[in-house]
Give the backbone structure.
Amino acid sequence: MTPSYLITGGMGCIGAWTLDHLRRQNKQAVCFDLSADRHRLDLLMHETEQAQIKFVKGDLTDFDQVKAAFEAHHITHVIHLAALQVPFCRANPVLGSQVNVTGTVNIFEAARQTGVSHVTYASSIAVYGPPGDYPPGLLAHDAPYHPRTLYGAYKVTNELTAQVYWQDHSLSSTVLRPYTVYGLGRDQGLTSDPTKAMLAAAQGEAYHIGFGGRQQLHFASDVAQQFIEAAEQPLGGAFAFNLGTPPVAIGDIAQLIMQIKPGVRITCADTSLPFPEGCDGTELQRRFTKVYQTPLEEGVRQTIAAFAR
């Protein structure tokens, strides 16, 4: 059977990058999303390139629609990225749980019923609590959950759901937990400000990043490729991995942007986000032969240049 990749949330930032990388690798990609807004895809691909992708407009909360997509497109690989982010879950907790929790159950159940043996999906640093909940330094890969948002609580539920599907049905899964993703298409969510600062700089405009402190940044292209890698390498269990890049001060990001685009003013707030500054990525490096980590300066330069184009 020809491999067929289902990407939920393909109209989002990581989803768009994932579809683009699959297309570049000449792999059959199916985008499942309720939205028909392709503005993020348009940043990465021409219309003729997008024509290589199959688009399914579907509601993740409707199990019949999800299962029908699996069956109609003979899905063999799943990269589940669709979710409502922190502000949307706070504003509408019921819809947030329907999309983020019920939608994820629908993905696992559709995979089980159609014979797909492995699911890769996105979690988040939001499963953790503030730095005071943990010892100093990078978080261990098995640090306990302490979410302080509904979004984080929903993500914890999804990780526990995956463990039960492995226990009860031997349906394996790999979850990746990004921290701050940056790059083309990152235009919404709690940690989108660094990318918005890069866009402003490309336009010759000033920008104020609404938080400071230190955190890990992940280039969207790298994250997408890591999800593809995880989808293609089942590990025989329900595994969760943090993406370990060196933590960096947001003030240093602002300085880097201004160095790349002299003449613009990028500032940041003093307040840190309520998360530890970073997570240990050793376990990811131990388990996967390929770990994608573009050097920060190179990723920022690429992003600003792409926005300028």
Remarks:
- The chain is about 45% helix and 15% strand.
- The domain at 4-178+220-244+278-293 is CATH 3.40.50.720 (Rossmann fold).
- The radius of gyration is 19 Å.
